[in-house]
Specification:
mainly alpha, elongated
Length: 79
Amino acid sequence: MANNYIMRMKEELDQLTERYIKLEQFMNTPLFYDLTALEKELMSDQRSAMFKYLTALSTRYHIITYTKGTDNCIERKEN
């Protein structure tokens, strides 16, 4: 039950990564270049925000999974 939030975080991380990759791919297509300047600017802003969020979420996930693993090892040694 305690690991439930870690699983949800991992799912969110996977989904966000997939969406970020799809956006990046779209921004390298002729369809993107046909958009208005405003649409391109807003999509670029969206990509930047997604990257920042992805970086923060990924860092949190790795810290939590590393710390959790370390704590478990320490608890086993003390018992």
